[in-house]
Fold this sequence. Notes:
With about 110 residues, the protein is of the alpha+beta class.
Amino acid sequence: xxxFEKIVAREIPAKLAFEDDEVLAFHDINPQAPIHxxxxxxxxxxxxxxxxxxxxxxxxxxxxxxKQIAAALGLTEGGYRIVINNxxxxxxxxxxxxxxxxxGRPMHWPPG
Length: 112
């Protein structure tokens, strides 16, 4: 069971930002920006490279949820970044697909 599955199951506490039947969002414990929220599907998909066509509606839901949280946190006007890491070289540290919502400061390019 991954760290995120344990958070979804409430075995590990987290500061929640959003929850519905399919998605859970919580504040990162090691934030990389003043606002850093992780948006995860409750149904585990290891990484974006393993997502299937049938997962399309859930993937869209993750992005729209990130947009909704960004608006609720006042990030829409100034902007924000959405990131999905895939695999070791992509910076993935938890094998459970998730979206990083980062904001509250200017972002730079390239990101890493």
